Every structure is written in structure tokens, then in C-alpha cells.
Amino acid sequence: MATNPTEKPRHRIVVVGAGFAGVQLIHKLQHPDVSITLVDRRNHHLFQPLLYQVATTVLATSEIAWPIRHLFRDRPEVETLLGEVIGVDRDKRTVQLDDGPSLPYDTLVLATGSRHAYFGKDQWEPYAPGLKTLEDATTIRRRMLLAFERAEMEPDPTIRDALLTFAIVGAGPTGVELAGTIAELARHTLPPEFRRIDTRKARILLIEAGPRVLPAFSEPLSAYAQAALERVGVEVRLGHPVTDCGPNSIRIGDTDIACRMIIWAAGVQASPAAEWLGAEADRAGRVAVRPDLTLEGDENIFVIGDTARVQQPNGDPVPGLAPAAKQQGAYVARVIRHRLEGRPPVAPFHYRHQGNLATIGRRAAIIEYGNFRMKGGLAWWIWGLAHIYFLIGTRSRFAVAWSWLWIYLSGLQSARLITQREQHRR
Amino acid sequence: MATNPTEKPRHRIVVVGAGFAGVQLIHKLQHPDVSITLVDRRNHHLFQPLLYQVATTVLATSEIAWPIRHLFRDRPEVETLLGEVIGVDRDKRTVQLDDGPSLPYDTLVLATGSRHAYFGKDQWEPYAPGLKTLEDATTIRRRMLLAFERAEMEPDPTIRDALLTFAIVGAGPTGVELAGTIAELARHTLPPEFRRIDTRKARILLIEAGPRVLPAFSEPLSAYAQAALERVGVEVRLGHPVTDCGPNSIRIGDTDIACRMIIWAAGVQASPAAEWLGAEADRAGRVAVRPDLTLEGDENIFVIGDTARVQQPNGDPVPGLAPAAKQQGAYVARVIRHRLEGRPPVAPFHYRHQGNLATIGRRAAIIEYGNFRMKGGLAWWIWGLAHIYFLIGTRSRFAVAWSWLWIYLSGLQSARLITQREQHRR
């Protein structure tokens, strides 16, 4: 019980959320005077940037997820709790869990991330699952594979075509990567395995309300990305918002398209941290924080990662990217260390943009860093190496590298498992 | 549509079940005059002998499961359907699916396997999940990991102890392998990751009504296995049947033991093939077949694998092992080939026993083949190599070998993911 924060005079830090921000903060905050309690509603830290590859049968779940406890097994002052936060009592300085103890804190860090959002159309969710958790990924994987299975059995050509129409909403990195991988699955991996349908005839629609794909990139690169998508067979629909999602169709502007599978890669909404704090939130649900990432009026509470709205000098908010979350985690670790050691406060948080990367399928990628731009096969290799580098631990690096190498050489996605609820059951 | 069996004059073979028996039959039956339809309620073939390693966080699901279509991608005359069989019309010679077409056959092969059984106490199932499918494995994995998580949060020592008590019912290979692996997880992998509980204090009970563990082995080897289990900390309880299973306890004989996690590795029950056929079934639900594995009175229907009761010359039934299922599949392929070619009928099926293997945890195994007996570390390596050899495809062999090597060297199980239903949800 040595590190039970309720029993030691150490500075008690409660971190909610074991995403990139929370994990980075704890990695950087090694200090003899602190005890840290990390709370997450899941038992694993997830490498979100590759989640789309689980959804599209490229990787196995365990290749991009690690037990949170495992990350801090060598840090006796860090305890991990699997629990759901339901509120924060700022006067008593405690965090309430739905079950289990309420956790007292001296410093509270909220890094609870974001969830996909439907712009107020939550009724679309059952028909258009988003992609934020491992369950989301296996749900999408299951529905996608079942669509091909059902099409193979379907006598009615109209229904068959609907089953073979896949609509991806939102042409940010996730949408682009999903569309490209599904197209390759349908064109390269599946054709020899079906007898009645031609999976190459599957329609993969990438729908974007804005004027171009990957708006975070410069125009030439997003033009290249669109061309690369169209080359692998993705139908790119720009400039019209999705106006309705249903079990059998999707509506773009005023056109209905028969479609049995929709994937939502559009908006995100921050987690309910703002409600817990009774704090102001912007339209995306993010809590506005001060330049040192503390909550307005309460310097013992930090909000970081996708949950926070951090202003940049130019007025733009810091983007919701993994590197940004990690930088905020590392920054808060420094702020806390300075406070513990009575050193002068550190300079305001400054976001260093590390560039944008995106892949289109199995061979092409685009990279942009300031004025440096790169596209094509070499960019794909750099993308791959960078992601392997950022994975945690030798085991995962080898496993992912092996899976990719295998697919690169054989063209065969192998994690094509239909599991859990909707399947046929024994 | 070339190989759609409803459209060609070829000999139409319908195979129900893509386990070892059904898959082996199709592998061995390559003949220009046949068209084969393979029906399974799942989209994947499962390497059952290693399923317990998914349940105990050693392997990832995709390492021991392969898309069925993928196995026969190069066999245009084989079509795969994902569907649930609900009946067989022996007069019309059709197989009924719950949804989708009814399938006409000239020859029908039922290889639908078995499910764990509760000796008529089906009300135990919710508290004592069995281990036959990937979902079973992830359910057990989730519940086991959640038990540790909840124990870490539990203030009441009595409940904590119950959460840390794991009961495995049945000391056959599956029960022994589960108990050994869970014990090692609790003793070697988890201790440094928990702060409030000592996972080494977890109780792992292996409960067997019979007089010894692994009864299929000779006495000396089962004595060795029991000693090895006790060395890794498993409590072996012999000679008393389980008389009740509940959410908070298990009853052995007339003793109640507080326990929040039970795993059922005792009886099996054959799938409902007998009902479909209106045929005689033994107590285990198996269909009695003739020496050529056809159904009594209907030579166009074969029943093989765990679904069939095949008499050996000595009167014993052929055991429900993977090699036995494969041999039956290969045998039926030969019978059908002989029929198609008008050659004389083949000799009755003869089961060649290929010996028994079992592992106890991460270092020890036992092997028995006739009078040849082997135990300990070397046996473990042989066991491992044998299983890697029997896996399908280079990718899986590498992946499993890597996972094992990693665990062998580091002692860290890494597929420790709590996913799906019972977890905390967003």
C-alpha cells in the first residue's frame, strides 16, 4: 500500500485519461515528492493513429494497445485505476468515480480526449459508427466483412449493390486512410475469395463537405492525395455535407445513395470534462485554458490534450494531434516540477508543429513540414518507420513491422475476423 | 458464377463446419467433377488447441484464426457461405439455412463439432463460461483481467479474496493449461503492476471429479503434471464433482468456496446434427456412424469429427482430438473420390493415435505416444514446435513464434486487453 495516495504526505496528483497527453505527463514527471493516480475507463493505452488499420483488418488489436498498468510497472509511486469519472468536487478537491473510492488530489490533470460527434445528429450513430476505441474498430471491421458475406448470399442485385457500397464521411486523415485501405481490400485481397460477387465492383465513397481532401495539407498535396485515392478506386465527393444517415442509405446534399455501411470520420467532440468542472466550453466541448494549461481561476487543475482548447499566438487553437497532446503532457510535468521545487513559473506553453503525415493505401503517403513536402512511395516508408518508432515496446514494433511487411509482400490482410455481437452465435 | 453448385452438373458436396475435419476434407478432395459448398456460422477457421492462450492473454485472436474463404481462395470449385444451418431435408436432399438459400446436395458432410456442456445444468453457463470460440476466449480474458482490476479497488478483504479466486472446472488438457497459465500470469507477470493487492496471493483452483489430472495420460505423467501445477501455485482438488456454480461462489461436493470467476473446461456436447438428421445420438449428442463414417441408412450423408461417434475395434469411441478429426476428413475425401471414380469401396476408417501432448505453464510439458513418455523443458519445446508446425501459413507461424519467444524471454504476456461488453464504456 506504500503508494496509496490517501496515506502519504506526498503531493497527490490525479491524472484522468491514459491517452498520449496523460501518459506523456507521467513519463516526464518522475519526482520523489509526488504520488500519482492514473484513472482511465479502459485498461489499455491506445495508439490512435493506427486504429484505422485495426478497423480495416491490417493489424490486430493487441498490436496497438498496451495495458496501462504495464507502462508504469516500474514506477511504484504511480497507481492505475480502472474507473469511470463522473464528477469533480473543486471545493473538496476530489474526483468522483461511478464505483470505487473518490480520489483526493492536490493537483488534477484532465486529459480525457475526445469522441466522434454527429453535429447534433446523434440518431445517426447506430448507422455511422465512428472510430475512437478498439470496440469501434472491431465493430467497423465486423460490419465491413459481414457486408461482403451478405452480398455473396444476396440474390437481389439492388440490395447486393447497396451491401457493396461503403460511405466514409469526412476526408481528414482518418477518412482518407480508411477509404484507401478498404478500396485495396476490395480490389486486391478479397477478389479471389468470393464466387458470386466481384468485390472489385464495391463502391467506396469518401464524402467531404469542404472543397478538398486533407485540408490540413497544402493544396498540391491534397490534390495528389485525391488522385491517389481515385487511382485505387475511391469515389471522392466534395463540397456537399451529409444530410441524413439511415440503415439503408446515406443522403449527400439532396441525393440519396443506397448504402448499408457508413463510417463516421467527421467531427469530434471533447469529453465531458467541462461539465465536471462547471467550466466554459467551446462548440467542440473543449475547455478554454490559460497559457500554462491551467483552468481559469483554479491553478491546481490542468486540462490538456483534445479536451483542452489552447490558443496559439496566431489565434488558432492547437490542433488535436498526438504530438500536440504529448507536448502538453510534457509541459505540465515541467510546470508541476517547478512548483514542487519552488522554482519560478515556466514560460507559457508553446506548440511546436511537427508536420503532417497521411497515407493513401499500401504504397503512397504524403508528408508536409513547413515548406518541405514529400509524396509517394518513399514518403510511405518514412511514414511507416515513423509510426513503428512511436509504438511502445520492442514486441509491438516487431509485430507491427512483421504484419506490414507481410501485407506489403503478399498483399493479404489477415486479421479479417468477424467477432462479437452481430455475428452468428453458437 | 462458374462454381455455383446450383448451376453445374458436377457432384455437389455440401460441407457444414469449417473445423479441422471439414477443412481437411476439402484440402484432400481436389477432383474435377465436384463442386463444394462450405457452410459455417463463423467466417474463420479456429486453431482450437491454442485457444486457451488467447483466453490467458498469451496470443492475439488473429494469430490462431484464419478467414475460411482465405483457405480456399485458390480453389474456384469451393464456395464458402457464412450461415447458420437449421435443418436437413433428407428426402429433398437440401440443407436449410436460417437466412439465405437452401442448399441442394448429392453428398452431405456434417462436421459441426461440439460445444461445452454443463451436464444438464445450463443455468451455470453465465457464471462458468466455457472455451470453444474466440468470443469465449475474449470473455474469459476480460473477466479474468477485470477481477484483478476490481480487487485493486475493493476495500472489503473478503470480497477482494473472492475476486482473486479463480476456479477451473475439469482437469483435461484445457483445464490444466488454463490453470497453469493463469497461475503464471498472477505470479510472474502481474505483481509489479498492482499497488494495493498482491496478485501472487490469487488462488487458482483446478477442480476435477475424477481421481487424477489429465486422465488420458499414464499415471506417472499425470502425477508429474499435478506436481508441476502445484509448483506454479495451482491448488488441485480431485475426487469431488462441482455441485453448484453461482455469481459469488462455487460448490465442490458440499463445500462452498467464495469465488467470482469460474471457467468451465469439463464436459462437451456435440452440435445438434443429430436433430437435423432425425438420427440416434449418444449421451454426448454424437451421431453413431458406420465404419465408413456414413449415416446408418443414408450413404450420401457423412458425419465426422466431434459430431460423430466412431467405434474403434476395441469398442472405445475415437477421441475428440484434432488429429482424429483430420483423419476422418481425409478418409471421407478418399471414400468420395473412390465413389466418383467407380472404384471399389475403401476399407473402414481406422484411427491412428498420434499421442497426447499437454503443457503446464511456460516451461513444462508432457508427451505420451504408446510407451514413449517425455516430460519437462525439452517436451515443452517439442510441444511448441509441433503446434507452430500445425498452424496455417507463414504469417501465423512467425507471429505465434514471436509472441512465445517474447514471453519466454521477458515473461510478459502482452495481449492483456479488456474489450467488449462488460467493460466501462464511453
Oligomer state of the chains in this structure: homodimer
Overall spatial form of chain A? globular
CATH topology of the domain at 122-266 in chain A: FAD/NAD(P)-binding domain
Distance, first to last CA of chain A: 44 Å
Q: Under the CATH scheme, which architecture of the domain at 122-266 in chain A would be assigned?
A: 3-Layer(bba) Sandwich
**DSSP helix fraction of chain A:** 25-40%
How is the main sheet of chain A built?
6 strands, mixed
Strand content of chain A: 25-35%
Structural class of chain A: alpha/beta
Q: Please state the average pLDDT score of chain A.
A: 91
Total of helices of chain A: 11
Point out poorly predicted stretches of chain A.
422-426
The radius of gyration computed from the alpha-carbon positions of chain A, rounded to a whole number of angstroms, is 23 Å
- Count of beta strands of chain A: 25
Briefly, what CATH class of the domain at 122-266 in chain A? Alpha Beta
Strand order of the largest sheet of chain A: 5-2-1-9-21-20
